[in-house]
Amino acid sequence: MEKLIYTFPASKTVKRPSHVGVVGSGDLEVLVEPNNSNETIVEIRTGITGFQDTWKKVIERFVSQHDISAFITVNDFGATPGVVSIRLAQAVEVSVNDSNDN
Amino acid sequence: MTQMITESLVESLARERAFQLLDKGSAYEILSPFDRLESPHLAAQNIVPQYDDGMIILKGTLNGKPTVVVSIEGNFQGGGIGEVSGAKLAGTLEKVLKECKEGNIIYPVIIYDTGGVRLQEANYGLLSIAEISAAIVELREYVPVVGIIPGKIGSFGGMSLTAGLCSALIMTREGRLGMNGPEVVEQEAGIRELDSRNKQLIWKMIGGAIRKEMGLADIVIEDDVPNFKNAILSIWNGEVELKHRTKNINQYLTLIKSLNIEEKISPEQATDILKGINNVENTDVPTPSELVNSRGRIWFNLLTENKQSISEIPSVLVADTEINGIKARIIAVVPNPESKFYRARKGEVGLLEGWTIAKYVRQAIEEDAHLNEKRLILPVVDVPSQAFGYHEELFGIYLSCSAAVDAYATARLAGHPIVAAVVGNAISGAFLSHGMQANRLISLNDDGVNVHVMSKKSAAIITQRTIEELDIAAKDVPSMAYDIQSFKKLGALYSLIDGVNAEEPSVDDSALVIEAIYSAYEDIKKENARDLSYRLKTEIAVSSGRVASIKVREMIEQQWK
């Protein structure tokens, strides 16, 4: 298991916390929690070791598209970069929306 | 032709499933991922945990009635039950029970999607499943406990024993219900016994449709959310008769005794046989010509002073005796090399054994019903495993084990003190069925005493690790180890008896064990609790063995609204 942490400056706040995904084969869970520190902090735990470079690129691309001040935690069970990007985008979408569908 | 759009429950994740069932806007989550109460044992083994540990608890209403849905996430670690996930389910049921006792009826629904015990946490899974079972047996008396097996994984292992205890079961055709998964049966018994890749056969044996036809499930529905809701409501409002299968001991035992398995019975034949369960003529199980010695038999003989067994099944020994002047019923499972159930000849708990244990425990309950002082019940535990076989799965070995669990739990609740004496192997579903429902567990401190959930070879295959890797992991995670000293670290043992020769006990050895039994008996009497809470209160449990189990229960209490 490998632990990775990235921090980027951010300006916009999110409305509410969100949780998407599952730590199952080829998938991951993402938690987004609002913070007021004007930065995006991404903390990742992954069972697949040795892919720091790939993670860095995926996260950099994500923050370039989403300017959110939040604490994001990821538990990864071997998701591909494509799946990671989709899950992150999904989590942000839930976080910036007003209503809860449940 | 118009086509209705359906809303699938099967295709949803566990959390979505729970929200789908409850009235919109009514539900809140207890111990959500944001509480980050994850398994401490997975990270210790370099496995990525999940923040809800794969167990989702939602409280809300269904059709306006207060309801708790506990939903197992099958995509995370195969829905396996570890310490945290197990405590979340057990703790929720215990809380619902408490509310019901105070007159606040809350309806519990369990959504099963699980392979049973999580092998990476092994004995924590066993302890949790015993606690879940105990809670269901007690809760059923206040409110129907509804189990749903929607499908993807199904319900297997120890969790199938808890499914067997539910008041009613709802399944889809995709759902499966069995004790040993097909892959494990093939691994343990060989491909001639069961070819796990023959999916058509598997679903014909243990799929939802056939389980309903066999009378083992109550409702089978098409996968659409409104269907699930209607099925639950039909159970609540009494449209569906509750079958109490685990109490129908005579019918099931008579049927199992009558089976002829010299040639394989097909699933279709099995269904016909099970449909005729009320019209089976009694057959006797022949006494074997030769007795095989085992630790179970040795200690049974010693504790009963060589009394004749009153049991009609040679592989289950039962006798009433006195221990230090206290009336006691001793029960042991022993090998019968001539049993027609060829997968249960070495002392395993199989179809016959589970139902037989249930029969003689229930007999003691009935005989003592009018007494204030109920007799001590003493399971002598020396069980190598449950029986892994084709016919076992076909005829519902899970239910036979549920029946034994139910009987012991019912006896405990009725006020019978139960002390389980572990003298040999105490393994997996066999230990759950015979021993784990006891008020107190005592054990010999001996190399031949092992507590675990699966043979090392099978566990290695299922968790995709080598046996060496498993041994290394077991050093840091005592619940994964097989020896009794490691089991003691979980805090569930009342006493560990040193210096006893387990194979050839002397008179002194016997006296030591009787003293330990008596001490456990007195402790039960002193405490006067009829549940399994003792295991969470010992010094070891509080300081290290069950820290997470205790914390989960405290947090459920805090977040309950």
Automatic annotation (TrEMBL), chain A:
Places the protein is found: Cytoplasm
GO cellular component entries: cytoplasm
PTM info: Covalently binds the prosthetic group of malonate decarboxylase.
Top-rank taxon, per record: Bacteria
Residues carrying O-(phosphoribosyl dephospho-coenzyme A)serine: S25
Pfam assignment, any one: ACP
Protein keywords: Cytoplasm, Phosphoprotein
NCBIfam families: malonate_delta, PRK01220.1
Protein name: Malonate decarboxylase acyl carrier protein
From TrEMBL, chain B:
Protein name: Biotin-independent malonate decarboxylase subunit beta
Source species, domain of life: Bacteria
Pfam families (alphabetical): MdcE
GO function terms (MF aspect): acetyl-CoA carboxylase activity; carboxy-lyase activity
Record-linked InterPro entries: ClpP/crotonase-like_dom_sf, Malonate_beta, Malonate_gamma
GO biological process entries: carbohydrate metabolic process; fatty acid biosynthetic process; malonyl-CoA biosynthetic process
